Amino acid sequence: MATSESVEVPLGVHVPRSAAVPATTVTARHSALVRLTHWITTLCFFALLVTGVEILISHPRFYWGETGNVLTTPLFKLPIPSSRNLVQTGYGYVLPDQNGWSRYLHFQAAWIVILTGLLYAIYGFFSGHFRGNLLPDKADLSWRAFSTAITGHLRFKRPTEAEFWSYNVLQRLSYLLVIFVLFPFVIWTGLAMSPAFVSAFPATVNVLGGQQSARTLHFFVTLALVLFLLVHVVMVCVAGFRSRMRAMITGRAGTQKEGA
Amino acid sequence: MTDLSRRKLIAGGLATAAGVSGLGVAARLAQKYGLVPPDHGGIYGLGETLTYASQRLLTRHSLAREFSRTQISKRPLENELAPPSEAFKRLQAGGFADWRLTVDGMVDRPGPFSLAQLKSYPSRSQITMVQCEEGWSYIAEWIGVPLFHVLDSVGVQPQARYVAYFSIEPDWWDSIDMADALHPQTFVTYGMNGNDLPVANGGPLRLRVPRQLGYKSVKFVTHMTVTDSLKKFGKGLGSAAPEGGYAWYAGI
Hints:
The complex is a heterodimer of chains A (260) and B (252). Chain A is an all-alpha fold and 260 residues long. Chain A is 57% helix and 2% strand. Chain A is built from 9 helices and 2 strands, in the order αββαααααααα. Chain B is of the alpha+beta class. Chain B has one domain (65-243): Oxidoreductase, molybdopterin-binding domain (Sulfite Oxidase, Chain A, domain 2, Alpha-Beta Complex). In chain B, 30% of the residues lie in helices and 23% in strands. Chain B has helices at 3-32, 45-59, 86-93, 115-120, 147-154, 178-181, 240-243, and strands spanning 100-105, 111-114, 124-131, 137-146, 162-167, 173-177, 187-192, 195-196, 206-208, 221-227. The A-B interface holds A 1-2, 4, 55-56, 58-59, 61, 66-72, 84-86, 99-101, 103-105, 107-112, 191, 193-200, 202, 205, 211-212, 215 and B 2, 4-5, 8-9, 44, 46-48, 50-51, 55, 58-59, 62-65, 67, 71, 73-75, 77, 79-80, 129, 131-139, 210-213, 244-247, 251-252.
């Protein structure tokens, strides 16, 4: 609930990156809906990741095409122990089976993250959040803008005041990639493993090259998402952990003085 | 409190009330149209119900993908099996001549079927995939009689909602709804790749439910019960799978 001293930025209005914001003003950096969907997604992502790893260790082998099992040649194997006797891993022990609750939680978290993502996408389109905050300006799609952003990153330069209020071109492109490519693709490859879903929509698995291909791609998209998460968290720390966390939790930016 | 925040509070309250009563109506409708799985209780009930309800609405009549003969796996995987029971070994010693599939419950003409009887019915085959929840899979040709044919011959009563099926091996049973039971690819399977169904793959008799994961295709089936409620079987969760922590519905 809005308290008397906080001034929320109206929906659809994004602060231009050149705007100098007086240090005394307290303004919402992220809208309430962005903050809420961000943290629900975070929670679901961890649930999906942990349960996904648990499901994976029951058969840490990957294949290409329609079918694959311990009698067929894998595309690659992960050098980890398994939770099943069936898989020869070279380890002298079998991990406990965690598939049951992992599958229950994996699909429950998937439902929540999909519904949350839909809400976010509808909001993003209609509020101007995508257009204003995430779509790069034409001027920014130049080599000069890219190289400035990249060299800034390579030198571990702390972001400027203006950059607190707006994303640079690399941030914008990575967020767009995660929201419009990686998340839809991880959902698609997940559904393409469902025998009932593909009975109704066979093309969803056929174009991927088969059910085992879908499983392998699901794994690689997950790796890409984990890589994004790591870089994202590192960048938050470099940019100023406390101010960024406060902005994403309370929405309030306050002054830009970082305590540490 | 300012006017604005009071208005927000009232709007929020109304939205919450509408949401909660909307969920209530949705839950009652889902129950009425058979969209609630038997293991809907507990913390994962929401996800399970959403999965089952949406897949049931999307896939009531859809067919599992079928493959060409060239895609049949060279060696069908023989999954791990517990050692057979004495009852199984006795029947095996007799070449399964005395194997019986008993169909009872809400049917007009309950009775046992021998393998010879089942094989005398119109035989069908399908080349479909067995997909294990662990992640591995294989493709085989499955030969049998569609379950709907068996159910037709015993006369299923109109109040039937599920078919529960039991292995000769202890604590191995499952159930499917009528949409799956009457589905043309749900087979009482006695053959594989042109031969009798090997014991390692569930022979002499296995129920094949190709739109769901492998664990719904229970091996060594001897008994089926047509029912309107799964409450009276086991712990009332619909199959042995939820009792072991796995979902009843395995379409995903």
